[in-house]
Amino acid sequence: MALFASALPIRAQTTNLSIALANLTMIYTNGDTDAVSANWSASGYRLPTEAEWEKAARGGLSGLRFPWGDTISESLANYDSGYSPPSYDLGPAGYNSVGMVGGQPYTSPVGSFPANGYGLYDMAGNVFEWCWDWFDTSSPSGNDDYVANSIDPRGPASSPEDSRVVRGGNWTTPASSLACANRALFPLQPRPRGSASARMDSGA
Q1: Neighbouring-strand partners of residue 167
Q2: Element (DSSP H or E) covering residue 29
């Protein structure tokens, strides 16, 4: 994956996209390189930090478990309610029927559930969302600096687990994983399939 500075008027013609990309500054790369980095001063798009992600997920609300309130049901997000859900999970039990295709559970189309207060869809459930921050469980708190440094934290410089933070839960996880404050880790290698996505931050 590569992210480039500046917004693009992307149209259906992919040849126009490749020409446009040739004139932009790359601000993020991954893949077969050990030199993964971001240009924080670039004006363009990048993965959000987990602090930015959580603010966006909350949609202007504060102190609530989910982007819409303190309870969850399959009319609000795509997740697995399980068979002994907590009291705040109104279910029904099992995988969300919205994501059922041919009898198998899957992700659901964007817009299947209401947007949050900022107009963002699927900030809880459906697929985990990658954040820029590394996940580090080696600190004494069992966490990185995210909680301790509450003013625009960027997380640690690396991860002993070689893992990035993911947020939001997905279609296979229980309601607790969809809470705005819940954090998880995904290793970069081997790459997980079909359960995480990237949401770009304008960097503005």
Answers
A1: 129
A2: strand 26-29
What are 126's two structure tokens?
């459906």
For residues 153 and 183, the answer to whether their CB atoms sit within 8 Å is no
* 168, two tokens: 């939001």
**Cα atoms in the 13 Å half-sphere on the side-chain side of 89:** 23
> What's the predicted TM-score (pTM) here?
0.70
Length of the chain: 204
pLDDT tens string, the chain, 204 residues long: the values are 333 333 333 333 333 434 444 555 554 454 555 555 666 666 667 788 888 899 999 999 999 999 999 999 999 999 999 888 899 999 898 888 887 776 777 888 888 999 999 999 999 999 999 888 888 776 544 444 455 456 666 677 777 777 888 999 999 999 999 999 898 887 776 554 445 555 544 444
Q: Which residue has the tokens 């989910």?
A: 66
What is the chain's percent helix, strand, coil content, to nearest 5? 10, 20, 70
Based on the number of CB atoms within 10 Å of its own CB, is 29 exposed (0-12), middle (13-18) or buried (19 or more)?
middle
The residue type at 103: G
Q: Which amino acid is at 24?
A: L
Residue 84 to residues 1, 97, 176, Cα–Cα distance (Å): 39, 18, 12
